[in-house]
């Protein structure tokens, strides 16, 4: 799938921090290639921490501020600004190692005890609302209740200096076990040196959620110097880092800047960035030239064909887009974001066969990853075209619940309950959405 900007207006009546906050908004960046690349970088570090790479997702938030944080043991959140600011794969792995240490060391336990009370039976991901509180972006968060919000955020996200010291020590061990140069951890802290001398409004949120002191920096530098290990830069890790950072940059930086940065370069990452930049301007002919060159360079790369599918689909070439996405699906079977793009392309053809194939693809994608409002929107359309109106209403209700439009979620959930067979799995899900919407609406 293409770099998908998902804007969540999430319920911020955060029971677990005891603050009556208003609805907040956060933007997640979903892209199969970026998420796969980050997963490859995280895998050795998470294994070294005793965590399952399959259970801890790396999620990117669109925010230029530098930050990384965890809410519970299921995800590590990275700001796009931090990913773009880092210079090496090892530095990004050091950030992941530090956040993994907060999970492995049980620093979130007391938060989790109360956070569980806020989870709904539908599992609709309302905990992501807390992501906004840590983003440090007043533009994204909207008007937050004076005083109360900042205090609650610091209580929920702020790590103590003792926790930071313990996480630093653990992260060095994880990096060594993973074969990553531990000096990268000190390099990351150097980026934030001097931040604590700034006023709160000028600090990057990382400093507010991770207390930073000269003593802490010296301690990390000492740990890294005392444990050099037998490490060397990993060409594979650097390649995944270049892909993740390059694609993220291509989609959120100015296209002309991207083209200046890659002028005359013909390596696969540069070709990908050029294709995206030309597509965004838009210059369809130049985008096609760059993506075709990329296909020749990497004919068996699913993400190359996925990107081609996106470019074709957004240029209203549904048939060729289906072919490109189809190749991507064959090369990466079961990838939910690629399946989602494939389903959207099939829906764009608007034929009986295309609609039926789209429904199968989108149902498989949803079974693997239900957290995308775009997926639920397309799935609702596919169900409606198939005459399965109860399931269409359920998909719409779940989409509205996920983006925080609780009144709309309740309306469509009631409709779904009336249309679906009583007692069926879908009927139960509709009841869950209805219960969650009613409960959270009452609390707001």
Shape assignment: globular
Sketch the topology as an H/E string, one letter per element. EEEEHEEEHHHHHHHHHHHHHHHHHHHHHH
The number of helices is 23
For the secondary structure, the number of strands is: 7
Approximately how much beta-strand content do the residues carry?
A: 5-15%
Strands side by side in the biggest sheet = 1-4-5-7-6
Low-pLDDT residue intervals, each spanning 5 or more residues: 1-24, 114-156
Could you give the distance between the termini? 35 Å
Q: Return the average pLDDT rounded to an integer.
A: 83
Derived structural class? alpha+beta
Structure overview:
This protein is of the alpha+beta class. The protein has helices at residues 32-48, 80-85, 89-104, 109-115, 129-135, 138-141, 148-157, 161-177, 183-191, 205-209, 214-226, 235-252, 255-261, 268-280, 284-297, 302-314, 318-331, 336-349, 352-368, 373-385, 389-402, 406-419, 425-443; strands spanning 4-10, 13-14, 19-20, 24-30, 57-61, 68-70, 75-79. Helix content is 63%, strand content 7%. A hairpin with a 4-residue loop joins strand 6 (68-70) and strand 7 (75-79). Helix 3 (89-104) packs across helix 8, helix 3 (89-104) packs across helix 9 and helix 17 (318-331) packs antiparallel against helix 18. The radius of gyration is 22 Å and the shape is globular. The protein starts with a strand and ends with a helix.
List keywords for this structure.
single chain, 444 residues, alpha+beta, 5-stranded mixed sheet, 23 helices, globular
């Amino acid at each position: 799938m293409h770099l998908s900007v998902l804007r969540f207006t999430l319920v911020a009546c955060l029971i677990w921090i005891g603050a009556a906050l208003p609805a907040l908004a956060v933007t997640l960046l979903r892209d199969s290639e970026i998420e796969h690349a980050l997963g490859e970088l995280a895998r050795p570090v998470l294994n070294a921490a005793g965590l399952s790479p399959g259970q801890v997702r790396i999620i990117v938030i669109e925010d230029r501020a530098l930050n990384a944080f965890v809410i519970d043991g299921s995800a590590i959140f990275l700001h796009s600004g931090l990913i773009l600011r880092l210079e090496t794969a090892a530095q990004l792995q050091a950030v992941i190692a530090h956040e993994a240490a907060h999970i492995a060391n049980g620093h979130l336990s007391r938060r989790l005890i109360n956070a569980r009370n806020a989870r709904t039976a539908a599992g609709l991901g309302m905990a992501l609302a807390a992501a906004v509180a840590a983003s440090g972006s007043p533009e994204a968060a909207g008007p937050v209740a004076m005083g109360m919000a900042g205090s609650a955020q610091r209580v929920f996200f702020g790590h103590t200096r003792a926790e930071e010291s313990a996480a630093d020590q653990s992260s060095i061990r994880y990096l060594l076990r993973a074969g990553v140069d531990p000096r990268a951890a000190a390099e990351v802290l150097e980026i934030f040196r001097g931040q604590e001398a700034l006023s709160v409004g000028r600090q990057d949120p990382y400093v507010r959620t991770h207390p930073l002191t000269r003593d802490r920096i010296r301690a990390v530098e000492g740990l890294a110097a005392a444990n050099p290990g037998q490490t060397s830069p990993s060409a594979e890790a650097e390649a995944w880092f270049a892909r993740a950072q390059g694609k993220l940059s291509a989609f959120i930086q100015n296209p002309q800047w991207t083209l200046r940065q890659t002028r005359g370069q013909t390596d696969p990452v540069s070709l990908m960035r050029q294709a995206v930049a030309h597509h965004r301007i838009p210059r369809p002919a130049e985008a096609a030239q760059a993506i075709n060159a990329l296909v020749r360079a990497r004919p068996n790369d699913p993400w190359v064909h996925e990107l081609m599918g996106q470019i074709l689909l957004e240029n209203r070439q549904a048939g060729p887009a289906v072919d490109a996405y189809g190749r991507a699906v064959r090369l990466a079977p079961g990838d939910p974001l690629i399946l989602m793009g494939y389903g959207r392309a099939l829906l764009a053809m608007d034929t009986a066969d295309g609609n039926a194939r789209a429904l199968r693809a989108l149902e498989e994608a949803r079974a693997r990853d239900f957290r995308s409002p775009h997926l639920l929107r397309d799935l609702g359309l596919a169900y409606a075209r198939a005459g399965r109106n109860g399931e269409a209403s359920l998909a719409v209700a779940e989409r509205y619940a996920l983006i925080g439009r609780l009144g709309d979620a309740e309306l469509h959930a009631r409709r779904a309950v009336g249309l679906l067979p009583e007692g069926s799995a879908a009927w139960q899900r509709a009841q869950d959405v209805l219960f969650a919407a009613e409960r959270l609406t009452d609390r707001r």
